[in-house]
Design the sequence.
């Protein structure tokens, strides 16, 4: 496997959006079955892409986009956030996600803490972040402990909550 992580160009964004929406949708539907709702709305992707400190990457193998990521870098605190990471649907479990994460760490060696979140139902993601990438679960947002920064209900958590994960570097 020869994954290259490259800065995303404007012309890459439509394919990135299509692929990440499909990956999140299929991941949710594999657990809960088909749904009318959109698990990762385009407005949420746009919010990440337009965040202060945003750096968006495309993962390329054999001249094909096989995944990508959006990170938000805080140059003052170096407490950085992984907003989105995906592997194109149909090629998961082949090490692409781990290659993307390793490349992100190498591109941002000044990071002191990485933070991300994942839905409660995403056992594969929890395994990936905790057991492969070295994150630790630090909080669990749910109806009894809501995210104070979340102003909208997020369908992508299946109503069961979101794990907040951190990695001390």
Sequence:
């Amino acid at each position: 496997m020869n994954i290259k992580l490259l800065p995303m160009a404007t012309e890459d964004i439509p394919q990135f959006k299509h692929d990440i929406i499909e990956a999140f949708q299929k991941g949710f539907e594999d657990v809960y079955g088909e749904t009318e709702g959109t698990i990762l709305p385009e407005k949420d992707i746009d919010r990440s892409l337009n965040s202060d400190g945003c750096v968006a990457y495309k993962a390329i193998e054999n001249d094909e986009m096989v995944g990508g990521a959006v990170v938000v870098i805080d140059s003052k605190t170096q407490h950085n956030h992984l907003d989105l990471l995906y592997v194109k649907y149909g090629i998961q479990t082949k090490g692409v996600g781990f290659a993307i994460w390793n490349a992100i760490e190498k591109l941002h060696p000044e990071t002191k803490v990485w933070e991300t979140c994942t839905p409660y139902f995403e056992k594969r993601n929890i395994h990936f972040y905790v057991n492969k990438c070295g994150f630790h679960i630090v909080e669990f947002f749910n109806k009894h402990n809501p995210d104070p920064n979340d102003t909208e209900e997020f369908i992508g958590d299946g109503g069961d909550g979101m794990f907040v994960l951190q990695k001390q570097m």
Observations:
- The mean pLDDT is 90.
- Strands lie at 4-7, 54-61, 64-72, 79-87, 113-119, 136-141, 162-168.
- Residues 13-32 form the longest helix (20 residues).
